[in-house]
Each structure stands twice: as structure tokens, then as C-alpha cells.
């Protein structure tokens, strides 16, 4: 990544908001007084203050060290996003950042209060920037490039050997990240009941891991598409190296540009980049691409049904700094669009939420162990702390089930069921 790209991370100046460190501290203390599940000890300048219930069994008990009092102003004016920005700047730290995220995830009322008390002007500005990242055809390419075009060498530092940037599935506590990633691929292929005569379409290639796995181990033909140029180039190279160019075709096309019909369809953690305005178009297109009797499997990060509208209409740390244009669906939203916009029916659902928490734990450990290599690529300390916060933010959310992950399978009319695991031909 170039120096120009690194410097593109622009954090807001607190001067543009509201001054008064002592007043900000008192108001943040008042918000923290609402903690009930778990406890927080806040250290600053040799003194310590405790918030929450120290004796709450099974709940997170965490420590935060404030290194710069401007942290309070960032939290007060920016809510949870402001807290993340203050962490990026090194204004506060913690020996267990995941536990901090878990604590506030278990105290959603306190998190909501922080956001509600943040600057209205700042909220409007963030929402305005987010709206500019709409997932039109051009916007989607721009948004995907902003994250995935950080470089294949960067992602290779912490992903598994298949470079799967999605939840692995762990069949046992002893399973490694590499084994769990392969197990996830097998579960998806088995849900699709892939056969050598099938032509599988994958929407969202990643770095080619699923397409190669399906062709190599299930013998099917695969057409896979991505709109990330970095991922496209890498996937093409991997397919050629694997000797599967006659079985796997890699495209660099938006899902809205695809035509033809396929026996099976798979999409792994791509729906989060679709955008709520385009869910109907996405599901209609997927249904149209499937032949009668076909199956469609997706792996999706989901928001709780009860919080979907609030999350959809707000800008969190992930939307602001990691995935521009992102939006998590809920299970109710997915089911509604399947019923309204397709002729498919949902036939299987597997919850893998805690598997994603463990996946993120492995990614975080590898990322932090590779700090020097990341620096060597031209990334600065703000970027490093931003990614650390991002990985911890997601892991803590999954561990407290504020967000979830599912593998969900749908079938077109004409699909026939016999005994479990067996399909009529």
C-alpha cells in the first residue's frame, strides 16, 4: 500500500466539536454509571474509578487505561465510533479489548446512550458520507476496492492457507483454523449436494478457495465472480496453478451483470455488501440464475431482527472505517425477500456464530503477531490500531450474539426430497 493510501485515514479533529475535558469526563462517567452486566475499572493519572456490578457472575470485568483525556471528548461527541477513533489515536488502551467490547455489547442500553448523546452534526455528517457509498454498480466496485484492494500480501498475513475471509466452522475445540476453513467449505458443498454433473455459480469469489475446493473434491464445473481486481487476479493464478482452468471460470463482474442458468449457487458473506436498497434485486437475480430444482446456499452475517432498522439507519465503526456501504441483513429480512422476490423456499439453517468468534480470535492473534510485516508494507500505527479494534469489535459482538452468522440453504421448485441426505433424481 502506498504512503498516499495510508494517509487517507482521516480522523476527525475534536476541535470541530465541543471542548471541555472535565465536563466531557463527568458526562461519560454518568453514562458509564448505567453499566449493570459486568464491571469496568477506568484508570487515569494514577487514580481509578469502578463502574458496574463487580460480582456479576459470568459477565466481563475489564480495565481501561486512559492515556489522553481527549478520549472522553471523542466518546461524548462520537459515541461508539468516537471510542474507536480514540483507540486508533492511542488515547486509551486495555489489556483485553475483546472483553471491553463484550462488556458494552452486554450493556446495549449504555452503548445506545453513548450514541444518542453524540454530536447530531457529526451523526449527520457520517450518515451523509455513508449515503455517498451506495452500492450501485460503480459504487460497489469502489466500496469493495476500498477494503479488499489493500493487497493480497496483507491478507495473507493472517488468513488460513486457502485465504478464506469468512467464518470457519470448528467441529472440535482442537481444530485448527486451516482445518476449520476446509470443514466450512465441505459443509456448504454438502448442503448443495454437489455432483460432478453440476455447474455451480459462486457470487463473491474471495481468493478462489471455495471454487477450487468444489471443483477439486466434488468434480463439478464452477463459474465464480468478483468485483475486486486484486482478488480476481489472485484467483485466476490459483486456478491455473491448481490445473483446474478447464473446470473453473473466474469472472470480474457484478452479480447484476450475470446471465444464464446454473444447477447450484453459493455466496459466502457477500450479502453484507449488497445494501438494503438492493436486497430485492439481489434475490430476484439469484433466483433467476438457478434452474428448476436447483439449490442456493449463502453464509451471512446477520443483525438481530429487533435491531435491524436501527442498525440499518445508523453508521457504526465498521461502516465508517472498514466496509463502506456495508449493511447486515436480519433473518427476518432474508426470509421476507426470499418469500416476496423469489420462488425459492428455505430448507436448512445452521447457526455458526460462535465459530466466527473463534475465527476472529485466530485472525487477531496472527495479525498482531505480524505487526512488523504490516508496518513494512507502509501501514502506520493508526491503521494497525484501527484493524485491531475492528477484529476485536467483531469478535466481541459475536461472543455476545449482538451479531450472528448463519449458513442458510434454499431450494427452487422441482427440488425433490427423499430420506435425509438423499435426493430423488
From TrEMBL:
CDD domains: AdoMet_MTases (cd02440). The active site is at 394. It comes from the Bacteria. Gene3D superfamilies: Vaccinia Virus protein VP39 (3.40.50.150). The keyword Transcription does not apply. The keyword Lipid metabolism applies. One of its GO terms (biological process) is methylation. One of its GO terms (molecular function) is methyltransferase activity. Keywords: Lipid metabolism, Methyltransferase, S-adenosyl-L-methionine, Transferase. Pfam families: CMAS (PF02353). InterPro entries: CFA/CMAS, CMAS, SAM-dependent_MTases_sf. Transmembrane segments: none annotated. PANTHER family: CYCLOPROPANE-FATTY-ACYL-PHOSPHOLIPID SYNTHASE (PTHR43667), FATTY ACID C-METHYL TRANSFERASE (PTHR43667:SF2). Belongs to the CFA/CMAS family. This is Class I SAM-dependent methyltransferase. It comes from Mangrovimicrobium sediminis. The lineage of its organism: Bacteria, Pseudomonadati, Pseudomonadota, Gammaproteobacteria, Cellvibrionales.
